């Protein structure tokens, strides 16, 4: 095998993927398996490059005599003209010998350039001031005149072209192995995406690595079982540990059958040819997957099915009576699904693996998800589970708890506390389904693989832990007054407003940053071509959507009163979850955006809670 050519720490010139731009970079590391160099640009961006895309700095140094061949004022004029795309022929610098040629000879030489034009070679040295904007126009480069050298070979390949090529110590494009690729590289710097990096092994392990993920596989189901057993007790205090039920009481085949029926009913709704089809964000290969947006229709169809069942006097509180068995059935199904997902991922192409779940360690990849977008034909398993069975199931569980409260306590109508919990959480679910397209830009879809973490979270944690307040109120009724109910409603409204408006700002900006409606928003341009918002909610704190989430979670728990801390488990969990996600986002964004993210953090110092954290 050939040995590496460039050493760690060496300063070289690296070609930016998808362009003919060469930048001054530093070699960070070399992967012997993939034969790729990890290089670091001056703005902090790290990319994996092939050896053929890297050149030594000496190959870009031209003769000193070239810099002294014309006066400073004439050089300035030449550079200014060379940047104008509308005047390609006039930006060429003339040597002293060329300047003495008669004008007629020069015109004749220019007329001979109408055929066989060789490619334009651009040598570029990056800096913060030449970052491209979204509309494709570069920022002012007046301060960077000396950092950009543009050679436009407009003459036929004759002695003049040879002289220029020899002067800059460059090979002719005829000798390049991938000549056709150069002609097709029309993307400018603003449209280059870092997703063009070749897939590599996951080096930084989250969740405590192999030991942490193994612990979570056991701890998460145990936590769900503990919470549900606590809610069943008359005294659900933390010091009153519940007695473990008999194992045979936790399983019922009929319940498992009902769960399977529910899962496949939602799958049927998902496959209905209704709703628009949209494209997701580009994958590492540049491909965009298609998704059908019909979650809200699935919710309407589900509501119709539930209405028919209630009309024919189906006992929906059966779900409350067998709540523990339903949770165990969902956990068993999610485990089986996770095993299937991992086994099928072993045959998946390298480019289809998740960047965060390709460590090579079984338990870690099994937990985080080895394959990024597992599909059966056009049926996307991860996208389906993200919003359908669990999220819509959460609403059905809450409704079952409401009916169970009325039956157990002989009420003609549900309590005010139960109405508030059901209403707040129904609003949250309907909002998610109505804005279903926004989930395509989340890390769950774009970065995380589909493994035990998401399968268990979507199918078990969401419907059986997020409904904890409603389940608690059935056995521990809480009476609240109308003024208190109004105050709690205001708290939830504030949280929802922050959550929805912040997410809408972000999603609209990602989809169409040139939208006139967003003209008032300011942003920091980055080396990836994306922008970091520094006004609106995203200029208030770095994660305003998380702030709205936490405020809403508090409003969902307040109707349960303050007799026990158990209903507030969701708030505590949500804070811990979002702080973990925030730290994860910070690390990911720092790697992705480099110095631009540091500038953003200086501009917006608070992460979630203004003036606190």
TrEMBL record:
UniProt entry keywords in alphabetical sequence: Cholesterol biosynthesis, Cholesterol metabolism, Cytoplasm, DNA-binding, Endoplasmic reticulum, Lipid biosynthesis, Lipid metabolism, Membrane, Nucleus, Oxidoreductase, Phosphoprotein, Receptor, Steroid biosynthesis, Steroid metabolism, Sterol biosynthesis, Sterol metabolism, Transmembrane, Transmembrane helix
- According to its record, how does it sit in the membrane? Multi-pass membrane protein
Q: What is its EC number?
A: 1.3.1.70
Q: Which SUPFAM superfamilies match?
A: Tudor/PWWP/MBT (SSF63748)
Residue spans crossing the bilayer: 211-229, 255-274, 295-314, 326-343, 454-474, 480-499, 520-541, 561-580
Comp. bias (Low complexity): 66-75
Keyword Nucleotide-binding attached: no
For this chain's UniProt record, which GO biological process terms are given?
A: cholesterol biosynthetic process
Instruction: Provide the reaction this enzyme catalyses.
Output: 4,4-dimethyl-8,14-cholestadien-3beta-ol + NADPH + H(+) = 4,4-dimethyl-5alpha-cholest-8-en-3beta-ol + NADP(+); 5alpha-cholest-8,14-dien-3beta-ol + NADPH + H(+) = 5alpha-cholest-8-en-3beta-ol + NADP(+); 4,4-dimethyl-5alpha-cholesta-8,24-dien-3beta-ol + NADP(+) = 4,4-dimethyl-5alpha-cholesta-8,14,24-trien-3beta-ol + NADPH + H(+)
Against Pfam families, the record matches this protein to: ERG4_ERG24, LBR_tudor
Keyword Transmembrane helix tagged: yes
Q: Which GO terms describe its cellular component?
A: endoplasmic reticulum membrane; nuclear inner membrane
Q: Which residues form the Tudor domain?
A: 4-62
Q: What InterPro entries does its record include?
A: ERG24_DHCR-like, Lamin-B_rcpt_of_tudor, Sterol_reductase_CS, Tudor
Superkingdom of the organism of origin? Eukaryota
Pathway of this protein? Steroid biosynthesis; cholesterol biosynthesis
| Annotated stretches, region: Disordered | 53-112
Q: Where is the composition biased (Basic residues)?
A: 76-95
What segments bear the compositional bias annotation Basic and acidic residues?
100-110
Cellular compartment(s): Cytoplasm; Endoplasmic reticulum membrane; Nucleus inner membrane
Top-tier EC class: oxidoreductase
Instruction: List, in alphabetical order, the Gene Ontology terms for molecular function in this entry.
Output: Delta14-sterol reductase activity; DNA binding
> What family does the entry list?
Belongs to the ERG4/ERG24 family.
> What name does UniProt use for this protein?
Delta(14)-sterol reductase LBR
Q: Which gene encodes it?
A: Lbr
